[in-house]
Design brief:
By secondary structure, the chain is of the alpha+beta class. It contains nine helices and 14 strands. The structure holds biotin.
Length: 337
């Protein structure tokens, strides 16, 4: 009922009367008042005016299951939300949920992680109150060899979802500029040359069959600074936009974009239909990069991606190569991008 009341308050410009709410849910007005009090305690600015009812004057950055359920409007992506104030890692929660039979699209979200994991065995700092830590469960009926492309589908969805949510949350009439969100191949999300978000994709599969895929996303939203070791490469939305943002609508916008992009991906089971949008956000395109492999590191010029997600680079001797994200990493010649 709390989720529904939140929706009613958001969808109504003026006031919703206690009577309307109690009739809609078949509960007493005292029960309605109790929910309103809870919402106020959680930080929502719900105004209560005698003879008029309730009005949502403002929403702070609340992260609860009800808040997420009330803003996510998709068919399958994030329709089932498991929310944790604190957990080890949302990727681990999704793996467990998947093993227990959770449906495609189940989303785990945490306010804080005690064992957040990054790519290449690194850890992912996950303090409370400022970031998005979420993982989604996918059960794609595609060959396991195609699964790595899902990371790029998610990168596209994260970049687009963040951009859309910024357009809604930042007020351009107040002088706020919407910063450009880009992708560093294959899947780091970038603002002004610094890392804003990372994606960790894991798969449970047999040789020719995917049991499930877990895609974890960590987004720096409201941090005001970073530890010395990552200060030169990490940034948050708040640091770039100059104001705190609500995390739940960002998650909802990403789920919407994912649902659409995933359908496009499934049509061809590759990135053909997403090439244009991915390429338009690709920060490496047309830049000189360092390609760091196990055997060699070399300098090359990045040209773009292939429909299966490899980065096309031109070596200094003029030969072109398609490089695979599983085998190499790429850095800018003069820094992170
Ligand atoms: C990277 O190294 O760039 C990937 C970081 C991925 C972090 C996210 S936070 C939510 C999910 N749970 C984890 O333990 N990791 C991912």
């Amino acid at each position: 009922m709390k989720t529904e009341i939140l929706r009613m308050l958001r969808e109504t410009d003026g006031y919703v009367s206690g009577q309307q709410i109690s009739e809609r849910f078949g509960v007493s007005r005292t029960a309605v008042w109790k929910v309103i009090r809870q919402l106020q305690e959680e930080g929502y600015q719900v105004e209560a005016v005698r003879n008029r009812g309730y009005h949502m004057a403002g929403s702070p950055d609340v992260m609860t299951k009800e808040e997420l359920d009330s803003v996510i409007r998709t068919k399958w992506a994030g329709r089932e939300v498991c929310y944790y104030d604190m957990t080890d890692s949302t990727n681990l929660r999704i793996r467990q949920a998947a093993d227990e039979g959770a449906p495609h699209g189940t989303l785990a979200v945490a306010d804080c992680q005690t064992a957040g994991r990054g790519r290449r065995g690194r850890s992912w700092e996950s303090p409370a109150g400022s970031s998005i830590y979420m993982s989604i469960l996918l059960r794609p009926e595609i060959a396991p060899t195609r699964a790595s492309m899902l990371t790029l589908v998610m990168a596209c969805s994260v970049a687009e979802g963040i951009s859309r949510s910024l357009e809604e949350q930042l007020d351009p009439s107040g002088g706020a500029e919407i910063p450009r969100i880009q992708i560093k191949w294959p899947n780091d999300i970038i603002i002004n040359g610094k890392k804003l978000a990372g994606i960790l994709t894991e798969m449970s599969a047999q040789i020719d069959y995917i049991n499930y895929v877990t895609i974890g996303v960590g987004i720096n939203v409201n941090q005001t600074g970073f530890p010395e070791e990552i200060r030169s490469t990490a940034v948050s939305l708040r640091m770039e936009c100059g104001q705190a943002l609500r995390r739940a609508p960002i998650i909802a916008a990403i789920m919407e974009r994912l649902e659409e992009n995933y359908a496009v991906f499934l049509k061809t089971e590759d990135l053909t239909g997403l090439m244009e949008q991915y390429s338009s956000m690709l920060v490496n395109r047309g830049r000189d990069v360092q390609v760091i492999g196990e055997k060699e590191t070399y300098r090359a010029h990045a040209l773009g991606i292939t429909p299966t997600g490899e980065l096309v680079v031109r070596r200094e001797d003029g030969t072109e190569e398609e490089i695979n994200a599983g085998e190499v990493s790429v850095r800018g010649v003069y820094g992170y991008v």
